[in-house]
Design brief:
Elements (H helix, E strand, L loop, with lengths): L1 H6 L2 H20 L9 E3 L1 H9 L8 E3 L14 H34 L2
Antiparallel strand pairs: 1-2
Length: 112
């Protein structure tokens, strides 16, 4: 695909980072929900699946808590917040790369 040659894996990475951010936000939002099971995306596995044309569903895993909650909830806020912040930084990095690539292509098309 031409987009893969132009943007590399960053287009897929950006989409996966966005989907991971939604999973992590859902975990945080459900921190007080009894029996809620925190989930996360194995990013490397998801990226491999995306490159092969597969679905990211096979890369979603339940998080194993360090200390189980009495109500069965497996969300640990410190873990979720750290993962969310790291993912947001990686998302911005991919977005910056793609933005730079688009700007370069735009200048090239304009003959600058």
């Amino acid at each position: 695909m031409a987009a893969d040659k132009i943007f590399g894996i960053h287009a897929s990475a950006l989409q996966l980072r966005s989907q991971r951010m939604m999973l992590l936000a859902s975990n945080i939002a459900n921190a007080a929900t009894p029996n809620y099971k925190a989930r996360d995306l194995d990013f490397s596995k998801a990226l491999d699946l995306a490159q092969q044309g597969g679905s990211m569903e096979g890369a979603i895993e339940y998080r194993i808590p360090v200390q189980a909650s009495l109500d069965g909830n497996t969300v640990e806020m410190a873990t979720e917040q750290t993962a969310f912040a790291e993912n947001a930084l990686a998302y911005r990095s991919s977005l910056s790369f793609l933005s730079g690539r688009v700007n370069t292509l735009t200048r090239a098309l304009k003959g600058e």
